[in-house]
Amino acid sequence: MEDQSQISLDNLSSPTRREKFLVGIIILCIYMGYEILTTILIPRYPDMLFGPFVFANITKVGFELFSIIALSVCLWGVLKRRKWSRTLVLTWFTFNILYMLTHFFLSFAYKEELPELYKKYLGTVDEFTVMFGILMIVSAKIILSGLVCWYVYSRKDFFPR
Questions:
Q1: What's the CA gap between 21 and 133, in Å, rounded?
Q2: Tens digits of per-residue pLDDT, 110-146?
Q3: Could you tell me if 107 and 131 are in contact, meaning their C-beta atoms sit under 8 angstroms apart?
């Protein structure tokens, strides 16, 4: 009886069994799925603002379609534990950090013009409200993307194939 319980405890603590259910990877998959679903399901404004620049129609749809496809491929690769998915996830979320930093610095450089651009979507707003909102969103996205990059980079052993 003792030997059987020892065997079952050894099976539970085997490295291959633990790697299949890493909590961080599950959270990463949920986060990527959330990003995909919010891009698809949540109605957005007809224009995409990037600093003081307004992208409309086909440019916005193209960017969102590219985001959906890239994140879907990342998600599929992580779920299948493909080696290339690690590189793709690191690339995507590093790009996301650079995109957010560029958006913030462009917004800061043209902060006097932003209330007029956002007035169309938010009603009457002042410069502080717009910049504070941009700062909070950009900060959250940079922190989340940085955590994803750090975690995926440190979990090289999870992507053997």
A1: 36
A2: 777 777 777 776 777 777 777 888 889 899 999 999 9
A3: yes
Joined tokens for residue 66: 């590219």
β-pairing, 53-56 vs 47-50, is: antiparallel
Three state DSSP letters for the chain: CHHHHHHHHHHHCCHHHHHHCCHHHHHHHHHHHHHHHHHHHCCCCCEEEECCEEEECHHHHHHHHHHHHHHHHHHHHHHCCCHHHHHHHHHHHHHHHHHHHHHHHHHHHCCCCHHHHHHHHHCCCCHHHHHHHHHHHHHHHHHHHHHHHHHHHHCHHHCCC
How far apart, in whole angstroms, are the C-alpha atoms of residue 63 and residue 96?
13
Q: With H, G, I as helix, E, B as strand and everything else as coil, classify residue 48.
A: strand
pLDDT digits (tens, 9 = 90+) for 33-85: 999 998 888 766 656 777 767 777 677 788 888 999 999 999 999 998 899 99
CA distance 115 to 123: 9
Q: Could you tell me the residue ranges of all domains in the chain?
A: 20-158
DSSP state of 9: H
Start-to-end CA distance of the chain, whole Å, equals 38
Token pair belonging to 160: 């053997």
